[in-house]
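Researcher: Can you fold this with uridine-diphosphate-N-acetylglucosamine in place?
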Amino acid sequence: MEQYVVKGGNPLVGEVEIGGAKNAALAILSAAVMTDETVTIENIPNVRDINVLLNAIQEIGAMVERVDAHTVKMNGSFIRDFNVDNEYIRKIRASYYLIGALLGKYKKAEVALPGGCNIGSRPINLHLKGFQALGATVDIRHGLVIASAERLVGTHIYLDKISVGATINIMMAAAKAEGKTIIENAAKEPHVVDVANFLNSMGANIRGAGTDVIRIVGVERLHKTEYSIIPDQIEAGTFMMAAAATKGDIMVKNVIPKHLESISAKLLEIGCEVEEFDDAVRVVSARRLRHTQVTTLPYPGFPTDMQPQMAVVLGLARGTSTVTESIFENRFKYVDELTRMGASIKVESNIAIIDGIKNYTGARVNAPDLRAGAALVIAGLAAEGITVVDDIYYIERGYEEFEHKLAGLGALIEKVSTEKEIQKFTLKVS
Ligand code: UD1
């Protein structure tokens, strides 16, 4: 088991390059199987969830060529197997995108029910309802979602709840259905738009992505394309929070500042300086921060995937803040870990009430999920003394070279796997 060991107390200063959006890439790589021609996709983050998905796509017969760490060529004409199931794919949430992609293309898909981060019950009923509305039969048997259709026919779908995954999945299947599909109450996240742009670049006819009504006219054939994935809004936001928590000064490069507005707005409100450039955002945190209220909401609201990182920052702000989690019911599991670092946080139902303290103190903590894991690393970087974050497997699902990017900003951090290495690090930095 690997861990991050961190010596806190250094303001993080410098520049960091943000990679491609993990959640966009997971959907786009799945959608890439929908043509029989060769597709080239660039700016793919080299993280564990992506590699698991690429292996699964290869296992069902597609040609997957890693041109370099961030570029893949794929050809889906060799797919002969519509059954996607292995011990790894069961653990990633986004395996569900292969249902929409395979069902759209072959009218048949058998995919292991998704796992993913343990942040609460994560049903996929809306995805399945959408496929059924398009004319598919959907069953769950032996841990697999089994979907098939004679024909998929365009229809009108109203999503009871705003869901990123359901919006994208239905959009993929409908791209190859007969006639017109309208998705109402659609998610508006940047990666919904990115997937629609990608499908359109393959010849799909999708309009309105980024608004809450998406109109899709199905096409018979999708063709080759070359496409570059948008920057990762959450990776960028995480580094912005690292600047805020450590009283640092970070230029976060290769981002789309518009995608970061809800995060920038909160940082400004609590007393950080945030400067926007064409494709960069600089965050400077020069004084003690102020308390605020944050509620997670679908885009353009404050992202749930930034909630733990924001709470870590507010844990150090003057006064009492509240963080309300309105998307997932079990996303405060990191609070007990943060409490071990001195935080004063009380959780009442879906609200965390945070009394800001002056400083965290280093401790041994567990990463309970991907984003909370990153948040605990940030807490460690702000803390006095040594912090060891266990279970960094979660963090590696979504952050590429996390420790190297942080070290480039002056962080004292190492990836270790033994007690001896922890002791060696401690001696080196003390
Ligand atoms: C995606 C992201 C995840 C992010 C989340 C919200 C990926 C791989 N993951 O997850 O990082 O935190 O969006 O921005 O892109 N729901 C249902 N039924 C469904 C689907 C969802 O009730 O069929 C509920 C969920 O339980 C949740 C809410 O809808 O309460 C939003 O979930 P959704 O947007 O679908 O999240 P994911 O696509 O799973």
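Model: Folded with uridine-diphosphate-N-acetylglucosamine in place. Residues 23, 26, 93-94, 122-127, 161, 163-166, 187, 303-305, 327-328 surround uridine-diphosphate-N-acetylglucosamine (CB under 6 Å).
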